[in-house]
Amino acid sequence: MRVSTGSLGSVIPEALASRHPPLYYLSLHFWTLINSGDSWIRLLSAGAGIATIAFVFAIGRDLFSRRAGLFGAAFVAVSPFMIWYSRDATDYSWAIVTTIASFYFLIKAAQRGGWLTWSLYIATSAAALFTHYYNVLFLLAEIPLFLLLWKRPVKLRAWLLAEAALAAVLLPWLLMLNEAKAYAQGSLPNLKAPPLRAFIDGILTAPITFIKGYAGLMGRGESALFLNGLQKIIIALGLLAAIAFIIYAKRYISSEIRRKLLVLTGFLFFIISLPVFMQMAQGELVAGRYYAVASPIFFILLAAIVSSLPSRLSWVISGLIIIMLVLFLNIERQGIYQEDWRGIMNVVASKTEVGDEILCFPFYNCVVAQEHYGDPDHAQNLPVKGGVVSGDQPQDVYLFPPDYVWAGYKSKLPDVNKIDDASELEQQLALEIKDSNRLWLVAGTGNLGNYPNAKVIEELLSDDWDLQQEWSFTPLNLKLYARQ
């Protein structure tokens, strides 16, 4: 939202600085010229979610059967995970619909060709790449899928021409990305291969995420989908049930359908495992939003298997799946206050008193979150103070001046005094919050690279402030202090 609120000329530079492609933000910029209300803004994502349902139906129908298309569309329509993004004012709903549209038109082009179909494939693929950088993994996975999914001879010339046209469309943007180095803050992280066990856990998290959404891990937030012992047992039992189910269904599934299911399963594994690997290689938790584009494929596979059973049995099982998804959706609605930044700002807005101040690490994220989820007219929003923490020592804390106002991702960083020891940090912190009676402290848990903890700040507060209450929104913590 922050990227889209400025002038038209600022949208692309701001998108570059925020490390996101510009398509969604450009669209949102023009969308908000009509109306800037919260419901209207979210309608842009809701429309993408509705279109996703239509594409899932069409893919299930074309690859398997009309019944598979209906089941897949129904599963997606009530999926808590998909509904989450269809109501959220972010680019992830667009990332999902553009990739599934690219997938659909690739299927149609492989089946019957035609310049119009190939043109639509190029357009939707370009839209996917201009919506989110992780979508490149989805489009790369489409290449072997295209070559393996159909037995009939593939018109390689038409496909190669389409890929060349897509590259030509992307070339100006790639040149512009070279200039983005001037906007990007920080350096590339040191990558290291994650432990195999953690990598497997991260992959097995995906089916739980697709089915349960973010509701099953109350208070842990969408960026921290770890598995506890009970969930691992449930996964093991679920895998055994799925294997038994597939063995039973095998008698009803033709060899052609089995081949398609196998290819799509490999495709699904790729578009889940590579984002998981890349996140863990950076020392971060598994964030479900980065493999959100795999969710429709997951439900298409599930629908294809269920629809291959005898008619009555398939309707019964699909009905049970829909009921389960709706139950999880109801739980997710009850847990709306456990949604990371949204939840934090809901709590702050509902409990703010005169004399409160908010101290945030990292500062920028808090500013954006308050604009998104705070008081709609900003009248009751607390001025955001704070800075950046990069470690556990006083020298790792950078406090911004109390009067600093962040104006966007391209904003010039404020001048900060170098902190040499704890006493100097304490003096600067005292100046930062000298007028506050109560203090809201927002910081990371330290489990996610983007959100380090602020223990050094908490230790200094402990002398003059009493901790009143705390809330966990992994990877974030919210704490309320009162002056002694």
Q: How many discrete structural domains?
A: 2
The number of helices is 18
Radius of gyration: 24 Å
Neighbour order of strands in the largest sheet: 3-2-1-4-6-5
**Helix content class:** 55-70%
Strand content is 5-15%
Brief description of this entry?
The protein has helices at residues 8-17, 23-34, 38-63, 66-77, 80-86, 92-112, 115-129, 135-148, 156-179, 196-212, 229-249, 255-281, 295-307, 311-334, 341-351, 363-373, 422-432, 455-461; strands at 356-360, 384-389, 397-399, 438-444, 465-473, 476-483. By secondary structure, it is α/β, with parallel strands linked by helices.
Structure commentary:
With 484 residues, the chain is of the alpha/beta class. It has two domains: 37-334, no CATH class; 341-483. It is 58% helix and 8% strand. The protein is built from 18 helices and six strands. It has helices spanning 8-17, 23-34, 38-63, 66-77, 80-86, 92-112, 115-129, 135-148, 156-179, 196-212, 229-249, 255-281, 295-307, 311-334, 341-351, 363-373, 422-432, 455-461; strands spanning 356-360, 384-389, 397-399, 438-444, 465-473, 476-483. Strands 3-2-1-4-6-5 form a six-stranded mixed beta sheet, with helices on both faces. Helix 3 packs parallel to helix 6 (92-112) and helix 3 (38-63) crosses helix 13. It is globular. The two termini are 38 Å apart. Mean pLDDT is 78; it is low at 182-188, 215-225 and 334-338.
